[in-house]
């Protein structure tokens, strides 16, 4: 199955630019000369977005985003095996780079996103290349910087 999902950084960047229509991001799902890849929403990304949502307008937008992806059954929820792989990768990152690097919740969430995307053959699109590059050192998966 070929698909893509956006890391939280892509949604946040769009919101900071004042774009209330997150669905315009679907254009990033296309590569020149190729058909559009199905766009998925990671439950981990959804959690991160909700955790940072302060105002009512944003909360309403996120509810609509979740509902739209749920309608088409494209919400990617991590499995137990993804959590296990995440822990294994974080242990390797800690051993190589120091355990304070693993202590950041963002790296844990990014690793979980990467493991669930890898299991499904999806490509992660991110504005946070450094963390995803580090994760890919220990467990290969497809990712692209946007």
Instruction: Identify the overall geometry.
Output: globular
Question: Got a strand count?
Answer: 5
User: Which sheet architecture does the biggest sheet show?
Assistant: 5 strands, parallel
- State mean pLDDT (0 to 100 scale): 87
Q: What does this protein look like?
A:
By secondary structure, the chain is α/β, with parallel strands linked by helices. The protein has one domain: 5'-nuclease (Rossmann fold, 3-Layer(aba) Sandwich), CATH 3.40.50.1010. It has seven helices and five strands. It has helices at residues 8-16, 43-52, 56-71, 80-97, 99-102, 105-120, 129-138, and strands at residues 3-6, 39-42, 75-76, 122-126, 142-145. A five-stranded parallel sheet has the order 3-2-1-4-5. α4 (80-97) crosses α6 and α6 crosses α7. The model has no long low-confidence stretch (mean pLDDT 87).
Topology:
Blueprint: E1 3-6, H1 8-16, E2 39-42, H2 43-52, H3 56-71, E3 75-76, H4 80-97, H5 99-102, H6 105-120, E4 122-126, H7 129-138, E5 142-145
Parallel strand pairs: 1-2, 1-4, 2-3, 4-5
Helix pairs in contact: 4-6, 6-7
């Amino acid at each position: 199955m070929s698909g893509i999902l956006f890391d939280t950084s892509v949604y946040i960047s769009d919101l900071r630019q004042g774009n209330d229509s997150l669905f315009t991001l679907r254009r990033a799902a296309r590569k020149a000369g190729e058909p559009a890849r199905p766009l998925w929403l990671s439950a981990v990304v959804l959690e991160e977005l909700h955790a940072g949502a302060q105002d009512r307008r944003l909360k309403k937008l996120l509810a609509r985003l979740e509902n739209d992806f749920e309608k088409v059954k494209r919400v990617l929820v991590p499995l137990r095996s993804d959590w296990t792989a995440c822990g294994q990768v974080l242990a390797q990152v800690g051993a190589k780079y120091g355990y304070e690097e693993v202590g950041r919740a963002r790296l844990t969430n990014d690793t979980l996103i990467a493991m669930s995307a890898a299991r499904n053959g999806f490509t992660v699109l991110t504005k946070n290349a450094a963390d995803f590059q580090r994760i890919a050192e220990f467990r290969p998966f497809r990712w692209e910087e946007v």
